[in-house]
Design brief:
Layout: E1 4-6, E2 9-11, E3 18-19, H1 35-45, E4 52-53, H2 54-60, H3 70-75, H4 84-95, H5 100-113, H6 121-125, E5 128-129, E6 132-133, E7 137-141, E8 144-147, H7 165-168, H8 181-189, E9 196-199, H9 209-221, E10 229-234, H10 236-239, H11 250-262, E11 266-272, H12 282-292, E12 297-304, H13 312-324, E13 328-334, H14 341-344, H15 348-360, E14 370-375, E15 379-389, E16 392-402, E17 411-415, H16 438-446, H17 448-455, H18 464-476
This protein binds iron/sulfur cluster.
Iron/sulfur cluster (SF4) binds next to loops.
Keywords: 4Fe-4S, Iron, Iron-sulfur, Metal-binding, Pyridoxal phosphate, S-adenosyl-L-methionine
GO molecular function: 4 iron, 4 sulfur cluster binding; catalytic activity; metal ion binding
Protein name: Lysine 2,3-aminomutase
């Protein structure tokens, strides 16, 4: 690991070290909190996953503002993340001096009540390959397949709101994870309608580059002319930007990105940034610059979270910084209905207002963000805002992405509700019994595999630009 010069600064490498529940009492910055507060964190962290690292604690959290600091709220367990009765129950278990198995069992009971599998991920999204159900693949939208490599199912730090939290507490037993790229390649070869693979986690960039290569190279080597983009979902640019700059295999990672872009495909880093502070350090900015130098695109997304970023100014600053660094603001999501969602959720109307006010503060280049968008069971539904139709006050909604491609872009309306925080809390407007997509959604629920089979009727022609770019990269190799 060598020092790296950036502007007039020297970027000094750091060695990654995760800090977890057992370390809470020894994190030096927490000494300013009382014993009771640390105890409360330990209790919450026995139910919800906790992991942080020294870059986050020393560079991203403003300890003078704790406990209200947004990065502290994003990464450290808070008393209010458990409902009062759950917290009281866990407090009693701890106070009784119960053995760790009893603590785990009590935590399990709470975890099962926290909607660990929102939006039908388990039942609806895992496709068949031949006669067998795949492991580590999800196929919800026609053009995009998600792939979960087994070694990439943890993160450099855990977000306290994370919707993938069940796999970090051992609830999922890594059900979604695969050790094989082979299964993915065979699935893609059989599905010409798929143009994009999203490698996701956890955080796939927690893997060493040599391991990530084992998943990416087979995609490049296989005959998959319809595969246009490889996306990598990651929060490493925010939580561990050293991954792209000074880590021992950072250069090798960038070479791998170059191999993808030279193959004529897009390498899109789907970077999860929750707050502008994550983009303000020199190492974070250098990370974006280095990724972009490979020809990769950086697209940025995050949910809107109470206590963290429920503030138009924070979003506007984040988007402005992203655009300035050449990254693309992509999605502002609605917090999902899982885990500690009661602590973070923001009513849809407020989320819409935050996005609108933030968009109004930035230039056109930074207005590429979509949202607020709910990744709900039928698809990604954005809130276009409140309005009046036929004398009724309504909320205008629209699918940005959908299980049934024909639903995309069709405006539909819900009765105005300023407290609703998720699609299933909304009622159709105009006295209608259900939303337009619901009959079809019932059919999909009964047989999700039939819907995926229907996707396959889409045949793609080979795109000449991609073919030309591939030929060029082959000649050069
Ligand atoms: S980085 Fe992503 S997967 Fe990891 S804890 Fe945060 S939201 Fe969850």
């Amino acid at each position: 690991m060598n020092d790296v010069l950036f502007g007039d600064r020297t970027l000094v490498p750091r060695r990654f070290k995760a800090l977890e529940r057992k370390d809470l009492s020894s994190i030096p910055q927490l000494a300013r909190l009382g014993e009771g507060e640390i105890r409360a964190m330990e209790i919450v962290a026995s139910v919800l996953p906790f992991r942080v690292n020294e870059y986050v604690t020393s560079e991203l959290i403003d300890w003078a503002r704790v406990p209200d600091d947004p990065m502290f709220q994003l990464t450290f367990p808070q008393r209010g993340m458990l409902r009062d009765d759950d917290f009281a129950m866990m407090e009693r278990v701890f106070a009784s001096g119960a053995p760790s198995e009893a603590i785990r069992a009590a935590a399990r009971a709470i975890q099962h009540r926290l909607n660990p599998h929102p939006a039908g991920q388990m039942e609806l999204n895992t496709p068949m390959l031949g006669d067998a159900r795949t492991r580590g693949i999800q196929h919800k939208y026609r053009e995009t397949v998600l792939f979960f490599p087994a070694q990439g199912q943890t993160c450099h730090a855990y977000c306290t709101y994370c919707f993938r939290w069940p796999q970090f507490v051992g609830l999922d037993d890594m059900k979604f994870a695969s050790r094989e790229a082979d299964e993915l390649v065979r699935y893609l070869a059989d599905h010409e309608e798929v143009t994009d693979v999203l490698i996701t986690g956890g955080d796939p960039l927690l893997m060493k580059t040599s391991i990530l290569r084992r998943y990416v190279e087979p995609l490049l080597a296989a005959d998959l002319p319809h595969l246009a983009s490889i996306r990598i979902g990651t929060k490493a640019p925010a939580y561990w930007p050293y991954r792209f700059v000074t880590d021992p295999d950072a250069d090798d990672l960038l070479r791998l990105f170059e191999e993808v872009t030279r193959s004529g495909r897009t390498l899109a880093l789907m970077a999860h940034y929750s707050h502008p502070r994550e983009l303000e350090t020199a190492i974070a900015q250098r990370a974006v610059q280095r990724v972009r130098s490979t020809g990769a695109v950086v697209r940025c997304q995050a949910p809107i979270l109470r206590h963290v970023n429920d503030d138009a100014i924070a979003w506007a600053e984040m988007w402005r910084l992203q655009a300035q660094l050449g990254a693309v603001p992509y999605y502002a999501f609605v917090e999902r209905d899982t885990g500690a969602s009661h602590w973070f959720e923001v009513p849809l109307v407020d989320a819409w207002r935050i996005v609108r006010d933030a968009l109004a503060r930035v230039s056109g280049l930074a207005r590429t963000a979509r949202g607020p968008s709910m990744s709900a069971t039928p698809g990604k539904v954005t809130v276009d805002g409140p309005t009046h139709v036929r004398g009724e006050r309504v909320l205008a909604l629209r699918f940005l992405q959908a299980r049934e491609p024909d639903w995309v872009g069709r405006p539909f309306f819900a009765r105005y509700d300023e407290r609703a925080t998720w699609l299933d809390q909304l009622e159709p407007a105009f006295g209608e019994a259900e939303f337009f997509f619901e009959p079809e959604m019932r059919r999909i629920r009964q047989d999700p595999d039939a819907t995926r089979s229907a996707f396959r009727t889409l045949r793609r022609r080979r795109l000449p630009v991609i073919a030309a770019a591939r030929a060029e990269s082959t000649e050069g190799s």
